[in-house]
Automatic annotation (TrEMBL):
It comes from the Bacteria. Residues 10-192 form the Ferritin-like domain. This is tRNA-(MS[2]IO[6]A)-hydroxylase MiaE-like protein. SUPFAM superfamilies: Ferritin-like. Signal peptide: none annotated. InterPro entries: Ferritin-like (IPR012347), Ferritin-like_SF (IPR009078), Ferritin_actino (IPR059125).
Amino acid sequence: MEQTAFDDPAYRAAAVDLLGVLAYGELTAFERMAEDAKLAPTLDDKAELAALATTEFGHFQRLRDRLVQLGVDPMDAMRPFVTPLDAFHDHTAPSDWLEGLVKAYVGDGLANDFYREIASFVDAETRGLVLEVFADSGQAEFVVDRVRAAIDEDPKLGGRLALWGRRLVGEALSQAQRIAADRDSLAALLAGSVDRPGLDLAAIGRMLTRLTEAHTARMTALGLQA
């Protein structure tokens, strides 16, 4: 029988952890968007956000099905990440509709970028699923349109939302780094092994630069100062 990367117990643990954290992240994204839809100022906005929430749940189902395919209980795979992800969302609970939109675009966007970076170290099938899950499903256009329109109507909102965006990036990066450090399997995946190169200091620097540039681009798209 042909060997695969999953025959390596350390690699299998890392891939399962990655799929587990992403599955729980998508499940909570669905919950938050459905909840935020209640704050929508118009019926059209409510319907748009509900549609995006449905897409997030579809992503969760894809990740859940991949875990089942690997012979893993999805609930067991997600459980280690419930406390840290819930804590992040508790610390960054939006106070209104616009803060919720910025969080979904900026905060979640940075965390997704980080996990995309990790996905470059996994097998092609898992990596393809991660990239597919994180492909823009219309969320960016919706958020940018609504936030820019609100700032055009009341320019003073720009300062408050910019501060909120900067807080989110700090919290999201800290949360993602903490999860990677707390899970030995993910830390080992990033560090590499004899036959699987990892990140050296220079590569870590380049990764942080990419994350920062992507965050700045999102803030600029919203009309906010990073």
